[in-house]
Amino acid sequence: MLESECQRVINEAGLEPSVGFLHGFSRYQTKQSLVYDLQEPFRWIADATVMEAFECGVLDLPDFYFTGDDYRYRFEPEAKQRFLDLLRERFNSGVRYRGRWLKWDTVIEQKAGELGRFLAGKSSRADFGEPAPALKRQDTRELRGRILALTQSEARKLGTERSTFHNLSRNAPKTTYLRVYKPIREKLLRI
Q1: Terminus of the chain with fewer CB atoms < 10 Å: N or C?
Q2: What is the SS3 assignment for 122?
Q3: Which CATH number fits domain 2-119: 3.40.50.920, 2.102.10.10, 2.40.100.10, 1.20.120.920?
Q4: 100-148, pLDDT tens digit by residue?
Q5: What gap in Å lies between CA 176 and CA 37, rounded to an integer?
Q6: What is the reported pTM?
């Protein structure tokens, strides 16, 4: 998904995808060196999504199978769809950049244009350090502590359903990723 997004924006910017800086030039049309180069500053999007997918149970080892003939592991179709939904969610999450709130795919597009202007001599620099990702876990120790200290009557006063309170209380002590919906998380952090 990241590769196809980078390919798209490189084509839109009018850049040659086979001529890269980090990855070597290739005479083969199938090698997209510049695409691989543009992916590098944004690879964290896919990496963080993979870690989140395993931590929150979207993916698990039984969702993969070994084909044997090409030495690759493949996704089960349903698992692939669950992962792609999570990856789309990450791509659609935004970041503040140059005074505006942008989705990450828009940032990638702007960076390809910035690179094109730099290579054409219309700009003196291409900065791939900004915007920097903010990788904050939602399931902090503080949040887990507040969940564990919460009584059922306090949860009721916060407007939390009994089943939600039960699930949070049961899952907070575990070491696996704890996904808490934003409205509930905000209420818990206010107390």
Answers
A1: C
A2: coil
A3: 1.20.120.920
A4: 999 999 999 999 999 999 988 999 988 888 888 777 666 777 888 888 8
A5: 33
A6: 0.67
